[in-house]
Design brief:
mainly alpha, MetI-like fold, globular, 76% helix
Length: 280
Amino acid sequence: MNAKLASRSGRLAGGWVVTAVFCFPIYLAVVNAFKANAQIKSDPLGLPNPFTFSNVITALSRPDHLIQTGLVNSVVITSATVALLIPLSSATSLWLFERSARVKGILTGIFALGLMIPPQVGLQPTVQVLKAMGLMNTYPGLVLVGISGGYFAFAVFVYVGFLHTVPKEILDSARVDGAGDLRVWWSIVMPLMRPATITVAIFVGLWTWNDFLGPLIILGPTQGQTITVAMYLSLGASAVSTDYGQVYAITLIAALIPLIAYLFCQREFVAGLTSGAAKG
């Protein structure tokens, strides 16, 4: 009994340590966003004393509106990427799920390559393709890159895993009643796969929101900035003496939108993760 209690206490302590490690950067961003720059340098771990909104106000009052523009661009690009990726990947997953085991295995291996190859490796040929298509330095070009490669492969894997929990009899009954493939996908499969859709939306949305190299190279600093590029440009303007209060304030502002989105979707997100792993 003592051994079991010690083991449980050890796992609990380990869990708290891991949680503290992951929460520590969040704590730093929150407390230091509301401190004066001098206090951040002297006591970065302490609570704000006095509490000030000057860092946030200064970040949002820039004459070039860099942060607001970055937030708007990030929202538009992330929303467009997720909105296009979900129907494409879910329809592909349904088609793949109903194929024979051999075809499914071959195509699954091909999709796995999209997860194994880092996106930075294919950035140069991607730029060449976008130039040939006339999509370089455009928002459609960046969105097109976002719905391809690893993001698409990840979404297909999540949807196929979730489809194993859907009774095949439901799909067969719908087809017997005369429903076509499009009707089966939209009216039956998509409502059932709502938790998987939320999971895909959260992961792909976060990856797109946090992407830095793609917007920096594909859009370019003069064409438009996402919030990550805006953070980089705002820091580059004060390279001689870094204003750490501004750094933490912009970081906090950039994290608020994805955090709020996650809080609204967290129940469906957990359901999607657990259901997708229930079978096969």
